[in-house]
């Protein structure tokens, strides 16, 4: 046999020849068999290294993608809460003529979650936030007890409240050409088929929508998605006081821990109907992968939320 051909692991063939057996003193052509095997082994090692490097790059790219997705979902949760709690107090434009009340604006504890706001004849303070144990709520059939963030919002009409049916908040007495609103003003809430101005109020008097939200989490074992989820519930549009079914807000949210922190005592609240303190909100949570089989490390998130400060000087 005059020659032996060996196929390398690289793109080209390396031809290997055995020494010529004739007696002519011609120089040998090609590589020796040992050299060919060594070169092919090195080529195979190079290809294996390239495959390993490619796999590492793919894994790194996927990890970066998962982390980016987790960070995006964390931002979605925090931004939703920030927007929701921004209206969880009496609107500043309603109190613009009462600097004492306006300067004390913060988050207070809202009216009871399971009681219709119509059962309260009048109150100087609506809106607020609270952290509740859902297992103790008589108005919910809870299969997965957790800590819920309860938000009672006040949305001024006619520009920020929408037109659909719901609960309308207005002063109990709102007649006269010049609205007089202060910290002692009593406000009532009535259900209405739309958000038009209440019939008992004269033009120029404020009114708005009272909305209630409840944020809770559900474990992966009890969720349809198979992963932990953050869920949102809101009031039904029906005239009978009831809550809608919970809807998934963001998937992959675990270790949900909202906490109220007592802030400095609110000044100038002489009326006993006002609470003595308002609150800050701390939110702790973990963002997992949105796939149950994915073992990516959870992203821990902690945020402290403050009520926005109103500039009395404009």
Describe this protein's structure.
With 314 residues, the protein is α+β, with helices and mostly antiparallel strands. It has a domain at 90-305. The protein has 2 helices and 12 strands, in the order ββααββββββββββ. The chain has helices at residues 33-86, 99-103, and strands at 4-6, 14-16, 128-133, 147-156, 166-171, 187-192, 208-218, 229-234, 247-251, 253-265, 277-287, 299-305. The strands form 3 sheets. Strands 3, 4, 5, 6, 7, 8 and 9 form a 7-stranded antiparallel beta sheet that branches. A 3-stranded antiparallel beta sheet has the order 10-11-12. A hairpin with a 7-residue loop joins strand 1 and strand 2. The chain is elongated. The protein starts with a strand and ends in a 9-residue tail after the last strand.
DSSP helix count? 2
What is the helical fraction, as a range of percent?
10-25%
Q: How would a crystallographer describe the biggest sheet?
A: 7 strands, antiparallel
Radius of gyration: 34 Å
Order of helices and strands: EEHHEEEEEEEEEE
Number of extended strands: 12
Measure the end-to-end span. Answer: 100 Å
Q: Give the mean pLDDT.
A: 79
The poorly predicted ranges are 1-14, 265-276
Give the gist of this structure.
The protein has 314 residues and is of the alpha+beta class. Helix content is 19%, strand content 28%.
Blueprint of the fold:
Layout lengths: L3 E3 L7 E3 L16 H54 L12 H5 L24 E6 L13 E10 L9 E6 L15 E6 L15 E11 L10 E6 L12 E5 L1 E13 L11 E11 L11 E7 L9
Antiparallel strand pairs: 1-2, 3-4, 4-7, 5-6, 5-7, 7-8, 8-9, 10-11, 11-12
């Amino acid at each position: 046999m005059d020659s032996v051909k060996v196929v390398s692991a690289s793109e080209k063939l390396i031809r290997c020849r055995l020494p010529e057996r004739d007696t002519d003193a011609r120089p040998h052509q090609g590589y020796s068999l040992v050299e060919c095997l060594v070169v092919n082994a090195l080529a195979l090692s190079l290809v294996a290294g390239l495959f390993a490097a490619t796999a590492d790059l793919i894994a790194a790219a996927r990890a970066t993608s998962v982390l980016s997705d987790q960070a995006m979902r964390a931002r979605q949760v925090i931004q939703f809460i920030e927007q929701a709690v921004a209206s969880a107090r009496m609107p500043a434009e309603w109190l613009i003529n009462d600097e004492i009340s306006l300067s004390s604006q913060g988050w207070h504890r809202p009216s009871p979650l399971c009681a219709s706001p119509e059962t309260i004849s009048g109150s100087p303070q609506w809106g607020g936030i609270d952290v509740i144990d859902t297992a103790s709520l008589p108005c919910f059939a809870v299969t997965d007890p957790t800590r819920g963030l309860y938000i009672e919002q006040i949305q001024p009409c006619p520009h920020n409240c929408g037109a659909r049916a719901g609960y309308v908040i207005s002063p109990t007495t709102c007649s006269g050409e010049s609205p007089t609103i202060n910290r002692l003003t009593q406000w009532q809430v009535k259900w209405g088929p739309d958000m038009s101005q209440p019939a008992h109020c004269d033009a120029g008097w404020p009114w708005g929508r009272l909305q209630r939200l409840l944020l809770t989490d559900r474990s992966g074992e009890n969720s349809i998605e198979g992963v932990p989820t953050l869920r949102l519930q809101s009031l039904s549009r029906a005239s009978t006081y009831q809550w809608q079914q919970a809807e998934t807000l963001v998937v992959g949210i675990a270790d949900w821990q909202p906490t109220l922190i007592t802030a400095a005592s609110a000044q100038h609240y002489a009326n006993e109907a006002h609470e003595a303190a308002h609150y800050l909100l701390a939110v702790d949570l973990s963002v997992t992968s949105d796939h149950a089989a994915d073992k990516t490390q959870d992203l821990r998130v902690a945020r402290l939320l403050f009520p926005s400060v109103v500039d009395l000087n404009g």
